[in-house]
Amino acid sequence: MDLGGSSVSGIGGIFGVFGAIAGAAIEASSKLTFKERTEARSKEFMALLKDAKTPDLNAAQAEYLATLIRKSGREVIVTAVERPTQETSLMDVKDGEPGVARLILRVTSGYTAETATASYKSTAITEFALRNPTGKRLVSMELSKRDNGETYSTFDSLKAASTVAAESLAKDANQQADSIFRQTFDLPPPALAVK
Q1: Which residues of 97-109 are buried (b: 16+ CB within 10 A; e: fewer)?
Q2: Model pTM?
Q3: What angle do CA 190, 194, 195 make, to 5 degrees?
Q4: Cβ pair 185, 71 in contact under 8 A
Q5: Taking the CB of the first residue and of the last residue of the chain, which one, N or C, has fewer CB atoms within 10 A?
Q6: Residue 177: C-alpha distances to residues 13, 27, 61, 81 (Å)
Q7: Distance, CA of 125 to CA of 189 (rounded, Å)
Q8: Pair 180, 133: CB distance under 8 Å
Q9: Which residues contact 153 (CB under 8 A, 6 or more apart)?
Q10: What residues does 107 pair with on adjacent strands?
Q11: How would you write the pLDDT of the chain (195 residues) with one tens digit per residue?
């Protein structure tokens, strides 16, 4: 059975554990490296999502969070920011409209198989930084969620369920946006000083 990385590992069903190990070794030595296979499968999966017109997860998460913030009475302008080059981290981008606080979001999501025989499990990581109008970092955090229950034993099964898999990742991204809102904007008013 192919549990994530190689098609020859099905030999395990015939020859047991040793057959699976031998099959994985044969596969690894005869085809792509793990890194090459990962890159190829990432491109293939992203092409499937693009063909299915799956919404951009970064933009969808930003719009969802903007809606929550607007409901709290704040004004929000969603702006796309290109990933910086060279040594500047996205979280340290200081460009922006003068006098306006900036919330910078970046979501990284996908399905990963940790080894050639592991199942594909969901991963969603959202990084964010809230900066005041002068660029000072007020709040920054990284939220991670691994394995939301949508697990696929083979790459082919992940591809076959690509729409459901993408919807599941979007749900994770929105849950993280909820957390960002609660931890950053949905705070009680400051207590009045008692004299």
Answers
A1: eeeeebbbbbbeb
A2: 0.70
A3: 145
A4: no
A5: C
A6: 43, 40, 7, 18
A7: 29
A8: no
A9: 1, 2, 3, 4, 119, 120
A10: 126
A11: 333 444 443 434 444 444 455 555 555 555 677 778 778 888 888 888 787 777 888 889 999 999 999 998 888 888 887 766 665 565 555 566 667 788 888 888 888 888 778 888 888 899 888 888 887 888 888 999 888 878 889 888 988 988 888 888 889 999 999 999 998 887 665 554 444
Which residue in 139, 151, 147 sits closest to 179, CA to CA?
Answer: 139
Residue 111: closest CA among 124, 102, 120: 120
Tokens 């599941």 locate to: 168
Other Cβ atoms within 10 Å of 85 Cβ, number: 6
Strand partners, 139: 130
Residue of 111, 101, 5 whose CA lies nearest to 57: 111
